[in-house]
Fold:
Amino acid sequence: MLNTFSKILLLLLLPIQVCFSQLVPIDEAELSGMTGQAFVNIDHTPSIVDANVDFTKLTFGLEVKTSLNSDLLELGRYPRAGETNPADIRITDFALGHIDSDGKIVPFEITDPFIELAFDNTNGNENLVGVRLGFGGALGKLSGNIESLTGNVDVNVYGKGSYLASQMSCSWDPICSIAKALVGGSYGNDDFSAKAELIHGSGGSIGSADPIRASHIGILDNQALSMPSGSNFDNWLLTLFSSKDCSLLSVNTCFPLTNFKSLEIGNNGSPSEGLFISFQSQAVSWQDGSSTTLASEGAFMNIPNGGINVTFVEAINGIDRERTRYVDPYFGGF
Structure:
């Protein structure tokens, strides 16, 4: 007897009229007048890191503008040794795109989305070990309460020396007082900057990198602020301007991810390249051209250098959430 699925399939196929046609070659003159681009490109490349791994990538030639809201984005929920957060990536009230002050929807823009599969060929057996969903370019607001994040998220933090000086509480420390006077005076109108990444914000490992289920982002231990061009700071002062245990001259340098309710994805108004989310059953070095990104086992998010830029004011005080719905619980209705 036919099972239920077979009956349904047969029912769908019965009304179909099958047509046959012959393939006809196109001559050179006719072919030369045709132009176009493939909607889907398929590439197969070997890994430049692991001889046993190769990739199959399907790129869609699309330009997407979207406004998306979700109560919860949770990926990679399973027990993980040494971790208290339940999932690799957990963002509540997740949204892409926003609504501006005039009530206009400003979509999240995506170009050239792709799906990529990673295969491991060991002892003659080919196994699927990773799946990646990525974007050739991404631009717009990403909102949510980021409770847990696994991956590579590089943030450029920048701001004026005058603001940094205002946050320094030197008490009776003479060296700190000298540095505060320099930063707030001679270099008050100059820009200082630092690279921030996922970090341990508490405990015995405070100030060290935390790429797995992180809840904080900040400046790594012993990383110095970049000095304004042409500055004559001595080496001892450069050392003084290095973060240690999430503090730099009494200024906090580690921040809860939940402080950043809305983030601008993009590089100074241009789409950011290299944004992706992936899933791996083992560590995989995803590659884009000659560069690679090592993704750990589980769910992984990559936001490349220049993808997020925040000021010191925003990092220290947090970033408010943008409106993402016309009837929005964060803004009391309409």
Observations:
- Residues 192 and 228 are 6 Å apart (CA to CA).
- The radius of gyration is 25 Å.
- Confidence is low (pLDDT under 50) at residues 4-16.
- The first strand starts at residue 40 and ends at 46.
